[in-house]
Predict the 3D structure of the following.
Amino acid sequence: MPARPFLKWAGGKGQLLSELTRRLPAHFARYHEPFVGGGAFFFSLWNSGRLARGGVLSDYNSDLIACYQTVRDHAGELITRLLEHKAHAHDRAYFYEIRGWDRLPNFEQRSQIEKAARMIFINRTCYNGLYRLNNKGKFNAPFGYYKNPLIVDVDNMHEVSRALHNVELRVGDFADVLDRAEEGDFVYFDPPYAPLSPTASFTHYTGRGFGEDQQRRLAGVFRQLAERGCYVMLSNSYTELTREIYSKALHHDVVAETVRASRKINCDGAKRGFIDELIACSYDPGVGSREPGIGEQSIAVR
Ligand SMILES: C[S@@+](CC[C@H](N)C(=O)[O-])C[C@H]1O[C@@H](n2cnc3c(N)ncnc32)[C@H](O)[C@@H]1O
């Protein structure tokens, strides 16, 4: 059975997955995903047998990476804890009690398994599956009132654990990939999207912003990796800013295309819409000769 993301994470891929898949390099060595989030693309690659050489998944969010580590190394015990939580999936008071653990002095003494089970349980039962911290770093999304929340899919958890077996997990900034990626490796970047309008903000992932300066810093890392001979692919919203930095600022071969995809882009998951997205590749993604799909056009070539 295929492995699927075990957390709901803002920025999940949806329809974009097929667009990314058709642009994969024909061959690559290791895989690196420095903004792993829910890991939708990683799981899709693993399911299609493309990760024989393993790779490195990383994210700035240390709770998230600890959760991945726990699934990889302690899936059985984690499942046991989640089944205990599952018995209380409709209990609002229980939700707030578990959510409130991070406000208590003994939180750091809790085991890695307890903390991971808490994170998954809250993620599955809180409003919209949002990972949201207040300015003191405490989880603060409210109870979600789901009729039938899926707390744990046991088979999937074991499959995810297998998928992660050959994978290194790291906490850190995306630029750390420069210390690891080698010629022939494949690097996929799925950063917090550049806002579509000046008022929209997508900074809730880590409590830190990801503004224009970060987008430009990321473009610099993209360029360095490409110069090293890595295959680099990036998805982002299609805005004035991203169009500019992935066509002009990079001096070597970059193919940037827009695709129209359905993606949850709003904090309110109910508002799912079509937005134009940009996919930039540091190599010829091999789809240039076909007719563009609906709503798709090539915007900047080399
Ligand atoms: C758009 S989400 C990734 C979505 C993911 N690919 C998926 O399929 O669910 C962006 C991720 O970037 C992480 N992030 C934000 N700023 C970062 C930084 N400077 N370095 C590394 N990760 C960062 C966030 O914690 C979040 O998990």
About this structure: The chain has a mean pLDDT of 86. The pocket of S-adenosylmethionine is lined by residues 9, 11-13, 34-35, 37-40, 59-61, 173-174, 190, 192, 205-206, 210 (CB under 6 Å).
